[in-house]
Amino acid sequence: MTSLNKPEMAAHGGGGGGGDRLSDLPDAVLTRILSHLPTDEAARTSALSRRWRRVHAAVPVVHLVDERTRRPRTVRDPVSFEQQVTCALLSRDAAAPIRALRVSTLNPSAALLDQWLLLAMSSGAEDIDVALKGWNSFGRRLCPFVPVEGASADFEDHVVLDGLPRRVFAGDGGSRLRCLRLTNCRLDLPSGDIRLASLETLLLNRIIAADGAVQRVISASPRLADLTLEQCPSAREITVPSDCLRSLAVVCCHNLTRVALRTRCLRALRYRGGLPGGESFLSLGACAEVTAVSVSICEDLTGRTAAEAAPVAALLDRCTSLAFLHLSLRPSMTYLSRWFLGTAPWLPVLRRLELRGYVAGDHTVHGVANVLQRTGSLEQLSLFFRGPELPKREYDFFSERDSDYGSSNGEKIDYSCKVHVPKGPWKARIRCLQRGLRRINVVDYRGRPFERALMKLLLSKAELLNELAVIFDPKCAARDEMKGEMSSWLQNQRAKVTFAEGKDARY
Question: Whole-model pTM above 0.90?
Fold first, then answer.
């Protein structure tokens, strides 16, 4: 085997003599790389060398997050966030356009926000993402089903949100927009026409608006391809005229009574809320091309009937090409799932399945096994475990989580008890476990008795499993024991196993 001297290693790109190849890249490539970083991090590259001194000033993206939205208000930054954004906009190369402005800030000045948007849109911005927060607008989740006293689908009377400047929706700037994301804003529309002729992506989250304002924005977007409405209490009846809509998400818009789509190319659908009021709630032109559906029912389904679940079942039955399904139910993981799934002609060809909820007892283990028996082609299964239902509590100002309905706080678990798998599922022939399932993801595993029973069933029967990824609930007190237990259950001992801990872990 021949060895290379230093000049030869440099020529071949090896060793320490390879030089600074990154700095040799053209400016266009470097700015493209830096555009994927937050603006403050991109600006730090100016300290690397003379070559990098002004590269960041040509990056077409201004992306800054106010650290006060993440940390206690007592933390003081040497440079205010308003100064950071203003400097990022004004210190740019005159010839470099701004293609995207993404700002998340706390209590911004209305005049300053107007100037930021004016600078960005006059420079030809196509992507505007504004998330505003104020101490009086963090608020609870706008969902009447969270276990909090006074839970409601509407804003509290004292909440006041800053309005977004009207210039976003009018003039040539609005007609150039391709992506618009607004969070915690008051929708203040101009009285004249709204021109959003190029808009393809629209997200409205926690929006205060006059009746019909949300519909006006949607109607002014004939090329809309991706629409997300989240916690918008003023949205009541929505019609999407765009015939090229590919993705729709309706999340906790509990006052919404009807959604009508004219598109025939819808691919992804997400719904989170209470049980729809009837089959007319969602009017779709066609469902044959839908490949991904997420259904999360916020309310406790105890006492509900098959007739009340029929609208969701009818929708899923029409999605004949479904390859991915996320199903989140209360009070348990598979409660009424037999009604929601109905005939489900797509189950035999389903590739990815996600189930979220509480494993309440043997009946939940039976329910999961029954669903899996109908999925002969399943390749990936993800389980998101929740705790038992909680009594209503007082609202905690500092708890801005996604309002989980089950929590591990104060729950006592006996980790020494023997794991018992119900006889029916244990003896059943679950075809996807024997010949198709390749990966299992588990999130918030606490080691509750019936969670362990379900995991033993799955791991003992998954003959071709290649990967197992488990994220433990932070309060799981027997992680080491649970790791050893699950590893011993694996039918395929060659499977790659990954364990992670803490709420920030991701599979």
Answer: no
